[in-house]
Amino acid sequence: MRITTIINNKGGVGKTTTAHALATGLKSKGKRVLSVDVDPQGNLSFTMGANTSGAGLYEAMSEEKTLSTVIQNTNHGDIVPSTLLLTAADLEFTDTGREWILDSLLSPIKSSYTHVIIDSPPTLGILTINALTASNDVVIPMGADIYSLQGLNQLLTTIRKVKKFCNKNISIAGLLMTRYNSRTILNRDIKDGIEEKAEELQAKIYKTAIREGIAVKEAQTQKLCLFEYAPKSKPAEDYMAFISEYLSQESEGK
After folding, report:
1. Domain of 66: which CATH number?
2. 204: nearest Cα among 149, 254, 154, 151
3. Residue 43 to residue 61: CA distance in whole angstroms
4. Residue 89 has pLDDT above 70, yes or no
5. What pairs with residue 143 in β-bridges?
């Protein structure tokens, strides 16, 4: 089972959109996929049509429920939903070993899925540390703006600390350019800067860049899968190309 966290401590870079597209795209290719919404905002849970009024990730992390009992099956696939109760995670989960809570929850269900896609919060607190500790790798969506590039260093510092103290096997699967418009000089310049940064960090940057498209927001508003709502849209085509790259890493051993 491959566990991938979609992460960026900067908001507005298409993190949840990427998590949803990756999960539903893998499902369309016959993979057994579980989405885990670790973001208290619950945007992925909303988009997938999950019921957020009942038990979810918080109850599993609090040991009130087992993970298997809070998994919901939706038209978009299986998901462990988030609720606002997770906002108190940094204050509530304080016991020794708190970094490994999610990892231990996922262990019993590893034979049930081929992929687990984790949507992390845009913060670097205990929920993000849990996601990273449980993961094989991370995908970092990067908006075509200078702030995304500036925030990358802080994120990479966190990943290095997790690698040192909690999960020595975690790797960066790649940086993914999102909301890209090749017609603007600024976007092309930022893309060049991200490629240079990726080379410096010896991290892969996916060849596919996700282009802007209104179909993404329309599909999310209607709680529909992008690949079903607008399969011929530019973002849908780009995300499917990205998923092919993502899967090719498995045969290549990354």
Report:
1. 3.40.50.300
2. 254
3. 19
4. yes
5. 178
With a cut of 60, say whether residue 254 has pLDDT above it: no
- Sequence length of the chain is 254
Closest among 58, 69, 127 to 98, alpha carbons compared = 127
Distance from C-alpha of 170 to C-alpha of 132, rounded to nearest angstrom: 7
Q: Are 44 and 119 in contact (CB under 8 A)?
A: yes
- Say what the pLDDT of residue 124 is: 81
**The pLDDT value given to residue 184:** 61
Using CB atoms within 10 Å of the CB of residue 222, give its burial: 0 to 12 exposed, 13 to 18 middle, 19+ buried: exposed
Contacts of 119 (CB under 8 A, 6+ apart): 6, 15, 16, 19, 20, 35, 36, 37, 38, 39, 43, 44
Inter-residue contact 139 to 21 (CB < 8 Å): no
Q: Into how many domains does the chain fold?
A: 1
Q: What is the pLDDT of residues 202-229, one digit of tens each?
A: 678 898 999 888 999 899 988 889 999 9
Span 51-65, average pLDDT: 92
- Provide the whole-model pTM: 0.92
Range of the domain at 148: 2-252
Amino acid identity at 129? I
